[in-house]
Amino acid sequence: MSLKATIFKVDLSITDMDRHYYADHNLTIARHPSESDKRMMLRILAFAMNASDSLSFTKGLSDVDEPDLWQKDYSDVIEQWIELGQPSEQRIKKGCNQSQHMAVYSYQNGMFDTWWQKEQSALKARKNLSIYTIAESVIETLAQAVNRQMHIQCTIQDGQAWFNLGDDNIEVSLTTIQLAE
Q1: What is the CATH number of the domain that holds 105?
Q2: Is the per-residue pLDDT at 15 higher than 60?
């Protein structure tokens, strides 16, 4: 018998002063049995940093043909393709070719450094690709606040994000490794 996904309900209130985006999102997140709390919080962070009315979670780990998140327009054109972790160069090529913009969010750790050393020459040629990292200690702090029902207030200003989860106010700094042109 296969394990089933765990369902999380997240009320996410976003105040993004950089993009002048202010909205509340009621998210239902199915966490795959193999997905950690850290990875799920990285998905929520990626959602918050790119939020729009048409951004959505996909089947993610359950479907290799889809990214972790994407934004499509009304004619089903993929505007934004978002991957987590250290995707292969082939996966990034697919995302860049099928979308107007692709972003990768990863933990800043030794595995990322090794991946970046190996892939950077090929990835720098991708003009519609942005890559961001977050300190692993910050994502671990976010993961410690995981509950089946979460109320998160996210404020973004000058590229910095603050996640307010009840009594916890966590500053989230992303490091830009590569920015799309």
Answers
A1: 3.10.640.10
A2: yes
